[in-house]
Description:
Helix content: under 10%
Order of helices and strands: HEEEEEEEEEEEEEEEEEEEEEEEEEEE
CATH topology of the largest domain: Immunoglobulin-like
Radius of gyration: 36 Å
CATH class of the largest domain: Mainly Beta
Oligomer: single chain
Distance between the termini: 128 Å
Number of helices: 1
CATH architecture of the largest domain: Sandwich
Structural class: mainly beta
Strand order of the largest sheet: 2-9-8-5
Amino acid sequence: MRGKFWGGWALATVLLAAAGCSKPTKVEVRPDHVVLREEGGRKSLLVTVLDQKGRPMDKAKVTFASSAPDVAEVDASGVVKAKSSGEAIISAACGKATGTSRVDVKIVSSLKLALPNSGSVGPVNTVVPLLVSGKNDQGEPADLEGIVFSSSVPQVAAVDGRGNLTLLSTGDTVITATLGKATATLPVKVQIEVPAAVKVDKSTQEVRLGEPSPLDFTVLSDLGRPMKAVPLTCTSSNEKIVQVDANGTATGVGRGTAVVTIAAGTAKNTIRVVVR
């Protein structure tokens, strides 16, 4: 009787142990996508092993491997280290369960900055898009996502995260672009243009009654260049005959003649407008 009791107890113990045995069935790796932008850059992977009931197995042993160790290597603790530009798949295995994380290594070895043909001359608040290029460690065009720009004298020219330069005052500044360990600088001489003259080719111009007509004039800068999108102040000597908007478009509201004054800053000129 005693032998049967102990035998039954032993069998029950084995069955209970078997029922409570946890087996790794899923390995979760976070993040599942890593981007490293400089040689030697590191990222630690967080691995969670789950059993058949979805419970974490905190003491489970995980083995790491890289599909391309020349691109990204991984140590026994799950720390990924960038070696060269390319793609690697990091696997984390526990028993027959495996999880992965994709690693993109984008090492920028050089950057280049330049101004467009329009240069750094223009009215205040002119936006100049910088020309930016770069190469990776394999001499190929580089992915420039994450590039950072700065201006040594932002009061002269400010630069945003997209490399757009805003001209603010006449002077000198240095624009710097940085991505990973790659850096490029660009000295910039800013010259702010101001209106110096309003050129009128025809001192007398005709408009039709009730039809808006742009008046013919050109605003010239202190460099003698035509200026566009310049704030204007336009007035009519007789608004019962001619009305004019802020863009210099005249509308005849009554037959006759009026004098329209076009002012850009301190520069101004007049046009005799005849309404037919």
